[in-house]
Design a protein that fits this description.
Blueprint (H helix, E strand, L loop, with lengths): L1 E4 L2 E11 L2 E9 L2 H16 L11 H12 L7 H19 L9 H11 L9 H12 L2
Helix pairs in contact: 2-3, 3-4, 3-5
């Protein structure tokens, strides 16, 4: 951990050697305490097995994988799967699809749902869109 310039602190977490190259993850904050908290959170994620060297995925990529690899094989009824695909393609991808999962916040989801209220019938988006977006935020 070091002060990069006055008022900006940095910390580094060593991810090890990947494909013959040393990989590191940097975090920045305006205070020493905040950068320590961010560094410790990265270390905790690393211990939990999170691949910190992977490129952040978008919500669209995650939803596509979720539909294809999880929902298509977990006993979800075909008619439900059709509705999920419709909600993802018609609402979630256009509204939030470009957002990187590591940047998706509950506030983003709430704004998205508020925007849907005038465009859909009551309850139409509730199960598919909200459930999928909330599950993505937990990844």
């Amino acid at each position: 951990m070091y002060e990069q310039r006055p008022g900006m602190w940095a910390a580094v977490v060593d991810l090890g050697w990947i494909d013959g190259k040393r990989k590191r993850k940097y975090v920045y904050a305006k205070s020493e305490g905040e950068v320590v908290r961010k560094r410790d959170e990265l270390r905790r994620q690393l211990q939990l097995g999170v691949d910190l060297s992977a490129q952040p995925r978008t919500l669209e990529a995650w939803l596509t994988e979720w539909l294809r690899d999880v929902k298509a094989h977990d006993g979800t009824r075909p008619s439900t799967l059709v509705r999920y695909r419709l909600a993802v393609g018609k609402h979630l991808v256009p509204g939030l699809g470009r957002v990187k999962l590591n940047r998706l916040t509950p506030r983003d989801v709430q704004r998205f749902l508020t925007g849907l209220r005038g465009k859909t019938r009551p309850g139409q988006h509730h199960q598919g869109a909200r459930g999928a977006a909330c599950r993505a935020g937990r990844r």
